[in-house]
Amino acid sequence: MLKVFVKLTGQNSAVLLENVNKSWTVLDLKRHIVDQYKYVNLENLKLIFSGRELSDKLVIEDCDIDENTTLFGVCRPLAVDVSTTSIDQEGAFTSLHSHIDDLGDHDEEQAEESKGASWCLTPQVYVYCGMPCKSIQSGKLRVCCSQCKQGSFTVHQDPTCWEDVLLAGAIKGTCQTEGCHGNTSEFYFKCGNHPTSDDETAVVLQHIKTNTRQVVCLTCADVRNPVLVFPCRDRHTICLECFHEYCLTQLNDRQFVQHDELGYTLPCPSGCENSYIVEIHHFKVLGEAQYQRYKQFAAEECLLRNGGVMCPTPGCGAGIFPADDQIRRVECVQQGNHGCGAVFCKDCHGAYHQGTCHPTPDTRPTHDRSYRVDSIRAEQARWERQQSEETIEKTTKPCPKCKTPTEKDGGCMHMTCSRPQCKFDWCWLCQIEWNPKCIADHWFDVNG
Q: Is the pTM of this model over 0.85?
């Protein structure tokens, strides 16, 4: 049994439906809503969840509806932009959530393959939940109207890559809230570990994946779950325990990199190009105390890169921007709890003096990278290790069904045939019909 909230357009609060049976159909759920909202007409009631209308024949258990889920109800025919909508509302439900973290039903061949597997994992999206979890958790993808922020919004198509989700207005749709004419979506994530209110969101950790391929860790060579996949060419994979150790080692040695666009971050331990972590909340894996050190070091590095200096007095460390770059005398002005009043030399960081500075020993780490990775293990710890470079780099392939040439220009591995009479959905890497296994392995993978 579930507790489900239903919020009708025009209402400020949601009604709670208790003891919702997972075996009910959506029509059964509607009947219980009508029992509570006496003015609601059953024939006109439409339920929206994750950007889609729920058809009456769908079973609750198949809709990714869990405890304390909020559904949005519209008591009139839904507004539809027929020029852009291509969704078969009578077909199987494919919520935004299920595209990321639900394998669905395997066909017979896939089921046979899974029998011999040592484990069977369901792909999930991962988030950092600030409160109350304060940890990495499985997440849920949700959508609302970018204009009125209401969840009574139907999308014209599902997202197919991270850009669709993270960039505002990438996916069009129709807001069903009366009086709102919004037509662009706004995606957000929630923690899947506990009930959440409408305004509670979580930060998505796009580098963390369910280890559906049983890829070994780059460092310890164990097969663990979940894992972090670096955005480098080889998609090197590291377990979260070793990622924590990697972050802590580099933090202690102050080997983080101040990136102009990404901030204070780390690259793949193998030294790969274009492999920086793009969302700093991944470093929450350090724990609260070490994450505070991370933020302090990041602020210090930013200060130094922009011409500032740190007060050398033990226990102070205040950041100071000298008024004149040509003057060596710097005073750490004491203002409230900030500053200590010390006067020091900007060049040597010793007490202020006249004349030439005396050289001081450099106690900073001199090694380029303190965290080493075995090259053979790095070859094994690749997320897409089965795919050849030729397969990944090829930009044009024939549709597996009608053989029409299809060009790929960025984006994910989910392709739709450009021939209007075909419209076949297929996987760019596998070159077969898009299926649950491809969703697990390739969806949101822009580099292969």
A: no
